[in-house]
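Subject: mismatched residue count in predicted assembly?

I count 694 residues in my input, but I want to confirm that the predicted structure covers every chain. Input:
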Amino acid sequence: MQPVPDYAEEQGAGGETHQTAGNGVDVLTTQHGHPVADNQNTLRQGALGPALLEDQHFREKIFHFDHERIPERVVHARGYGAHGYFELTDSLADVCRADVFQRVGEQVPAFVRFSTVAGSKGSVDLARDVRGFAVKLYTQEGNWDIVGNNIPVFFIQDAIKFPDLVHAAKPAPDRAFPQAQTAHDNFWDFISLTPESMHMIMWTMSDRAIPRSFRFMEGFGVHTFRLLDAEGNSTFVKFHWKPRLKLQSVLWNEAVKINGADPDFHRRDLWDAIESGDFPEWDLGVQLFDQAFADGFDFDVLDPTKLIPEEILPVRIVGRLVLDRVVDNFFAETEQVAFCTQNVPPGIDFSNDPLLQGRNFSYLDTQLKRLGSPNFPNLPINAPRCPMAHFQQDGHMAVRNPKGRANYEPNSWGPVSGGPREDPARGITSFAEQAEGPKQRLRPESFADHYSQARQFFISQTPIERKHIGDALVFELSKVERPDIRTRMLSHLANIHDELVVSVAEGLGMPRPKPATAAREPRTDLAPSPALSIVGNGPEALTGRKLGILLGDGADRALFDALVKAVEEAGAVFEVIAPKVGGVPLSDGAVLAAKHKINGGPSVLFDAVAVLCSAESGALLARDKVAKDFLSDAFGHCKFIAYSPEAAALWQAAGLADEIDEGCIELTAAADARGFVQACAPLRFWQRELATDR
Ligand code: HDE
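Triage response: the counts match. Full output below for your records.
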């Protein structure tokens, strides 16, 4: 294994760790190893005189600083990574020769990078967007990059449309806004002119596009791939990552507020979970099928805008992915990691999905641009953790420089001094597929149905999720200035589902247009797929989630302790919010330090909340605008809310006293705490939103 270099391991060529001063402290040096005497002042001619060109230390420092940035990723610029491992739990040896799928119980190191797609590197975490879910497995036969998303389908069917899609989604070229959002004319113009995107649009307008955290979302390889056995026989495969903590998303109104309160909400969540030892975990599932299944399936398995419902082809769990180590250096690891779809070990092969084929060109190309040298695979985060031997050499920043005379193959210097040789038995091979046909630019007829699976997704959602899809479309299209683009979009929705087009047209205050002309008549006979719902696949406990406890002075100590105990028993965590971060005195006189001052810890940062106070502090909270927002947001976002009886004044002041429902649980005694935590299991009390809407 190649360790990630760190400061402590930095060595000069002589092997010594650091130059040491008389007092034992490491001496600061230049990049060239010269000890530095003064790191505060440039070399000047006199105290107020001009700076001198010969100040090599200054020039080197500024020169390096000026070159510290590399181009951000053209898409997926904002991302966050972590290390871990993949463990095989069910052998696939019968259908696949890949080393990683042979021996149950064996682990290989992994690095995962999650990302948003459209925003730049400094954009917010809770943008409405697809999330990247890119996994690098350092297998014994080379790196395998499964460069997936948290949505199992894609906007377009052919890679040649990718630059158009991305240009339309990114800030407009003249004004350079809007950032990290799709609620604008250019995006919906392109989408409404691209009917093949309709299935994906159902997903991106669903709550899947505003996940609660990376830990609570699925990952998908999207395309159909091939597994090859030792004889070269092929089995088609689709890859799924399923979070052990189950699915969870936030509400749009909540996402908007989270972006203001904590733009790093997702990366902080991942960092905190791993650092506290609560390692996120996903199961790797595979959908395996043969050509006969592909031929009999309703849609073309090479079309990346289609999925195969799990109810038709079950997902077989074969392994688990655990993230157990944060990075040491964000740039070296998360920024420099270079995923390439074409990085597959022997036994994994591609299908002819035209999007996948295009990606296989794009990723290598982009890494050269981004990392600046064909030697990027030698960076520690990208380097294989298995032995490697090849004759690629030289170039910018060549750090891996083979010794010896032979740098070509075949050669006559023999297998030992002449270097490595090819091995037909172990080496990577492709499925021997027959390919022929006229050379042409053509979309296959079998890709022509753009609406049926969009409809299937919609009817697979629970009522609240359907409502959110409609709400999201109304929000996004309300930001579109040109009415003709909105109308064109509505005409596509008319091909998807009546309920949807009616609610969106109504929400926009626009007439319902005639359905768009469809390349193929939409089907209405596809059965719902319950696996596609988030709410239907949500958690069974508060485990891994966070309770926010707003405390007023004099809050009951026993109640607080009981709540904390119940939260910890559930495998959840809590944070204290108080009027002053320095501490809040409880009923027993003890002062408890707070994590947040009220205006720094709004309820949007928590999965459920509690308000515990005394009568006096309750009255003070009732006069505090931010405390009222804390409660009314938690209520409006359908969260479960626990409160001590003394919080009555706050309910009153927030205008909610008459609306208290079963999702709001009064804690009159310490014994009530456990019941509250159990009641929180579904995470949201959706009846509240449905009732309000009615
Ligand atoms: Fe990507 N994509 N993509 N993409 N993609 C990139 O590679 C591209 C697509 C995905 O965390 C780029 O290193 C094309 C589908 C992820 O570093 C670039 C097409 C899926 C990441 C690129 C697609 C993805 C990328 C930009 C259409 C889900 C982030 C920087 C044919 C299955 C990886 C980079 C990371 C990144 C090209 C479509 C996932 C330019 C041409 C479909 C998760 O190479």
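Residues 79-175+212-283+313-378 form a domain with the Catalase HpII,  Chain A, domain 1 fold (CATH 2.40.180.10). Marking this ticket as 'not a bug'.
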